Amino acid sequence: MSQSNGDQEKDRTPVNYCKEGEGSDTCKSEVMLYVNRLNTEESVIPYEYHQANKTATVLIVNGVADVISSNITYLIIIPKKNLEVRITAVFFDFCPTDETKSPVENLGQVVFGERIRPSPYKIEFLKPQSCVVACTKTYVGGDKSGDAQLQLLKKGISLNYQHHWIVDNMPVTWCYLQNHDQQYCSTGFPMGCYEKFDKPHTYYLSNHVDLKVTYHTVKVVPRSIHHKDPNKPDCSGKDPVEIPSGNLKAGEKLNITYTYSITFEPNNTIKWSSRWDYILESMPHTNIQWFSILNSLVIVLFLSGMVAMIMLRTLHKDIARYNQIDSGEDAQEEFGWKLVHGDVFRPPRKGMLLSVLLGSGTQVFCMTLITLAFACLGFLSPANRGALMTCFMVLFVCLGTPAGYVSARIYKSFGGEKWKSNVLLTSMLCPGVVFCLFFVMNLILWSKGSSASVPFSTLIALLALWFGVSVPLTFIGAYFGFRKRPIEHPVRTNQIPRQIPDQSVYTQPVPGIIMGGVLPFGCIFIQLFFILNSIWSSEMYYMFGFLFLVFVILVITCSETTVLLCYFHLCAEDYHWWWRSFLTSGFTAFYLFIYCIHYFMTKLNIEDTASTFLYFGYTLIMVFLFFLLTGAIGFFACFWFVRKIYSVVKVD
Question: Where in or outside the cell (predicted)?
Fold first, then answer.
């Protein structure tokens, strides 16, 4: 058995355990059990495992609030009144423990709302324990605080909130049989159940757990047991703990005793390096993943065949025919993409905005590529909690230089001169949109007392990373970008714009953009299901090899789709390709948003307004970043294609 480093939960090397009194300094007997946040598929709002009632005394003088004693931040505005207010915040009331030895969460864990705390459950290596009392909670009818705690427990049970525990840096799993006797192991187990027994409108709390420690794995069986005498608990009883749907009567007492039993079972067939396999193997979908890859490959082969046909036959013949024309009159009689050579590199409208979006899109592309590469190498495994989000955020901050460079180069090629505005917009616009959305979501989580709310100090740290690291790096990249000579195009631009002929329905901008996102989305929609499950349903995502392959297929598909549509539009003598190339592949994000709505309606059982707002708020952040990513891929593929074909044709 092995355990990660006690306070950090980050050490990924085995730690030796031994019986108490039999070991040395190289092994330990105490096996720490940590508790994490509680969450559910029926709400986006997670909560900490235990946070006792917290009371703030607020003295308000002339409308100014002064918090006298509190460890919660409140914002209170009551004009022209002098009074003292006591505010009580209610949280899940499980067994308390000393939280001073809590592991330090990394940036990704804080953003995701993970709050890992020590638990009151004490485990000694190879020491079986039976029906040990963790604590006893007493609720008295008529006590407002106790009634509020019971109401919150009942709400958590009705919404199917799940415990998430950690032993030896492994999730404590709840394994049960599904269809066709297939074992499924979930990384969470329910707080309790509602209407599962004979009495209707009664809540049953899982106040007892049977922990089975198999060397390198830990499994749990939650049970509801009514202990008649808290001092002499009987874990063999079959009567469950009942919490009535209404409030307790005045003076009526309800005792809830939390107990646990521990058994050890050696298993020499499981190696430490493969101890996660039983969780991952219990999650089906590997066959579906291969189907997803094959489906995407078929689309790529189809598009590649189309592009090859255009490049090797149509385009080759076009170039040969154009280069054989000697007479200017004959050239005027020709039709096709050569006729717009004098306008194809004409700077687009709102070139500043396009260059800014391309710079941010390049930043997101590099961030995604490097993160997936690290994930495939095993640096961002599920055992390294929060590492994936931390990697995303750190890379996004550090990749401000390519964003500034690309934005400056493109903007200078458009003939832009407002370089200060370009740099400021590149460093502020897209990150500002993401931060504003995130801040609004965080305000809602704050108001709900959720563990997912990012502390004020962390927000300050994020702002410091943005303005102290990302913005200066963007300025450095823009400095080098503006110092470079403008991009030289293979053909000159005419002074007078050419009139664009009437277009058919299929070559008009909007239909082409709408069609352009279909095939790239078709390559990724199966993979999206697993990604959304890992975000909203607490399922582990570990198939980064599949994801990297799908990302490569997405890049190829976006590029080929945009190049095809760009060629068709140029043949129709429509030279407005700059924005169209960005929006064609970027429109894949619209289909992503539609799929997220479908997932919300069919997979999740969210009903409350706050969770719905949070879901779509975070979805908008994801869709916006995906729009920048795919838009930049399509633009640069089309940019390369247009420069290539006009560099090989002779123009008088």
Answer: Membrane
What are the residues whose beta carbons fall under 8 Å from the beta carbon of 618, sequence distance 6 or more?
Answer: 44, 441
For residues 187 and 175, the answer to whether their CB atoms sit within 8 Å is no
Residue 1 CA to residue 17 CA, distance in Å, equals 7
Q: Render pLDDT for 297-349 as a digit per residue (tens, 0 to 9).
A: 777 777 777 777 776 767 677 667 666 654 454 444 455 777 777 788 888 98
Phi, psi of 193 (to 5 degrees): -145, 165
- Element spanning 47, H or E: strand 43-47
CA dihedral 510, 515, 516, 518 (to 10 degrees): 140
pLDDT of residue 652: 55
The Cα–Cα gap between 559 and 565 comes to 10
414-423 contacts at long range (C-beta below 8 A, 24 or more positions apart): 414/347, 414/348, 414/351, 414/354, 414/355, 415/347, 415/351, 415/486, 416/351, 416/352, 416/355, 418/352, 419/478, 419/482, 421/352, 422/352, 422/355, 422/356, 422/478, 423/474, 423/475, 423/478
- Residue 538 gets the label, from left (phi > 0), alpha (psi -120 to 50) or beta, of left
* DSSP character at residue 68: E
Identify whether the C-beta of residue 132 lies closer than 8 Å to the C-beta of residue 261: yes
pTM: 0.84
SS3 content of the chain, % helix, strand, coil (to 5): 45, 15, 35
Output 324 or 152, whichever has higher pLDDT.
152
Q: What is the DSSP letter of 348?
A: P
pLDDT in tens, 265-288: 877 776 766 676 666 655 555 555
Residue 18 and residue 162: Cα distance in Å, rounded? Answer: 32
3-state secondary structure of 239: coil
Strand (E) or helix (H) holding 256: strand 253-265
DSSP state of 453: S
Which residue, 72, 100, 203, is CA-closest to 149? Answer: 203
**Residues in the chain, how many?**
652
Q: Which residue has the tokens 């078709």?
A: 522
Give the tens place of pLDDT for each residue, 386-407: 888 889 999 999 999 999 999 9
Per cent of the chain over pLDDT 70 is: 82
Nearest to 532 by CA among 625, 435, 615: 615
- Phi first, then psi: give them for residue 253, nearest 5 degrees: -110, 145
| Cβ atoms of 159 and 42 closer than 8 Å | yes
Give the gyration radius of the chain's Cα atoms: 30
Beta-strand ranges (E) seen in 157-252 are: 162-163, 165-167, 170-171, 174-177, 183-186, 189-190, 192-194, 202-205, 208-214, 217-223, 242-244
Instruction: Of 101-105, 359-363, 373-377, give the range with the top mean pLDDT.
Output: 359-363
Q: Which among 133, 138, 165, 151 is positioned nearest to 31, based on CA atoms?
A: 165
- Determine contact, residues 35/116, Cβ cutoff 8 Å: yes
Rounded Cα–Cα distance for residues 47 and 115 (Å): 9
Taking phi first (over 0 means left), then psi (-120 to 50 degrees means alpha), and beta for anything else, what does residue 449 get? left
Q: Which two tokens stand for residue 168?
A: 């030896």
For 33-69, how does the pLDDT look when each residue is reduced to its tens digit (9 = 90+)? 999 888 888 888 888 887 543 443 444 444 444 333 3
Distance CA 579, CA 291 (A): 34
Tokens of 619: 């979805």
User: Residue 241: phi, psi to the nearest 5?
Assistant: -75, 120
Three-class secondary structure of residue 171 per DSSP: strand
Distance separating alpha carbons of residues 574 and 398, to the nearest angstrom: 39
Q: How far is 557 from 565, CA to CA, in rounded Å?
A: 12
**Which pairs from 442-447 meet CB under 8 Å and 24+ separation?**
444/610, 444/613, 444/614, 444/617, 445/45, 445/113, 445/614, 446/73
